[in-house]
Design a protein that fits this description.
Layout: H1 7-20, E1 25-29, H2 37-45, H3 53-57, H4 65-68, E2 74-81, H5 91-98, E3 106-107, H6 116-135, E4 140-143, H7 151-157, E5 162-163, E6 169-170, E7 178-185, H8 204-208, E8 214-216, E9 219-220, H9 226-232, H10 242-245, E10 248-250, H11 254-257, H12 284-288, H13 292-298, H14 308-324, H15 329-341, H16 348-365
Parallel strand pairs: 3-10
Antiparallel strand pairs: 1-2, 2-7, 4-7, 5-6, 8-9
Helix pairs in contact: 1-6, 14-15, 14-16
Length: 374
């Protein structure tokens, strides 16, 4: 263990450095997460992790930081607000309004700017280097949604907030619109005080979930979650869930948009999270027309790139099928023709979802599949 520093003073210094690096809050916790193991085991045994095999393959190492990174004694946690700098007042109502426009593509707020993995990882690494400058050689490893780490558990234990009923971490001064990251270190630091739960009797997040993925307080079946279906899931989206996806093509913010605590969500000071052109307010039909080359160009440095062009088209096809059943006239005809143009796509996955979209549009309207309408 390193010597020659006062641990409490070092934590205060780390928190100051964290603020300079645009982190909203820095906390510290120990490595004993044994109390979280039964819940993790039960979640995995129920199969709620779906296709996310990595969640199970690492077993309980997720709840054992000292096994994941031998020598770890403390975990420094960080959170970073991500609302864009120019986010207007009443942003929650504005975002909910997008769901009422079937032809508009809805991308989760966090994914409209630069890939947060890169932003947080770089700044966490800088923070670790500053700590090493202060204490000498430092055994450490930086994480941001990048390894078998129980991020929400570590965050709640270190005072970043409490686990909301939607399973996300909630903070009284920042809602839930923030990213989490960690630095596993081999020095003993005093733990931050956890905070109490302030959800009370509110069940807004549970009630709003389009697919009923939130089974109860802090019980999430990821297999039904739209964020999982549009991002993590590589295969066909289950047919019974497709109509519930609506016009959401990458992620879902519904449970956060209705959360009363998000009236306190903070704007990020960083330009990294400002929305890119085309990822807010665009028409489904325009995004569906992107070639793979255009998709790669427009999503360079974006978290969206990780799903690839095939799943991008899959997701948009589902949204277009839902839009077909809700619009009429010129807009409906344009959606129909765009889907027909992709009906012979080389990917069987894309073809399946395009066929479903055309069938859904025809079934809802009573118009035979393949018929143009004006």
């Amino acid at each position: 263990m390193k010597t020659g520093f006062v641990a409490a003073q070092l934590v205060s210094q780390i928190q100051a450095w964290g603020r300079e690096l645009a982190f909203s809050q820095i906390g510290v916790t120990g490595v004993d997460l044994s109390a979280a193991e039964p819940g993790l085991n039960a979640w995995l045994q129920a199969g709620f992790h779906g296709d996310m095999g990595y969640m199970a393959s690492h077993g309980l190492k997720r709840a054992r930081p000292a096994e994941l990174v031998p020598g770890t004694v403390s975990v420094i946690t960080a959170r970073m607000d991500y609302l864009p700098r120019d986010t207007p007042e009443g942003w929650q109502a504005i975002e909910l309004g997008r769901l009422e426009r079937p032809g508009e593509a809805v991308v989760s707020l966090y994914a409209r700017g630069r890939d947060y993995h890169k932003v947080l990882r770089n700044r966490l690494q800088k923070l670790a280097e500053r700590i090493a400058t202060e204490v000498g050689p430092l055994g450490h490893r930086v994480f941001t949604d990048s390894a078998p780490v129980l991020e929400a558990e570590l965050a709640s234990r270190s005072g970043q907030g409490w686990r909301g009923k939607h399973t996300l971490v909630l903070n009284r001064e920042g809602g839930s619109m923030f990213f989490l990251g960690e630095i596993y270190v081999d020095i003993a630091l005093p733990a931050s005080e956890p905070v109490s739960d302030h959800c009370g009797a509110c069940t807004a997040c549970i009630e709003v979930c389009p697919t009923r993925a939130i089974l109860g307080p802090q019980r999430l079946d990821a297999r039904r979650c739209i964020s999982y279906l549009t991002i993590e899931h590589a295969g066909a989206i289950p047919e019974d869930l497709r109509p519930l996806v609506g016009n959401r093509i990458y992620g879902c913010d519904d449970c956060q948009l209705v959360c009363p605590w998000n009236k306190f969500a903070q704007r990020s000071p960083l330009p990294d999270f400002d929305p890119r052109e085309g990822l807010a307010g665009s028409r489904l039909i325009d995004l569906f027309a992107w070639t793979e080359a255009e998709f790669l160009r427009r999503t360079e440095g974006s978290p969206i790139r990780r799903i690839g062009h095939e799943r991008w088209l899959r997701n948009i096809a589902v949204a277009m099928g839902n839009a077909l059943s809700a619009v009429a006239g010129v807009e409906r005809n344009a959606l129909h023709q765009a889907l027909v143009a992709r009906s012979e796509h080389p990917s069987a996955l894309v073809r399946e979802h395009v066929a479903w979209a055309l069938e859904r549009g025809g079934r809802e309207s009573g118009i035979p599949e393949g018929t143009a309408v004006s």
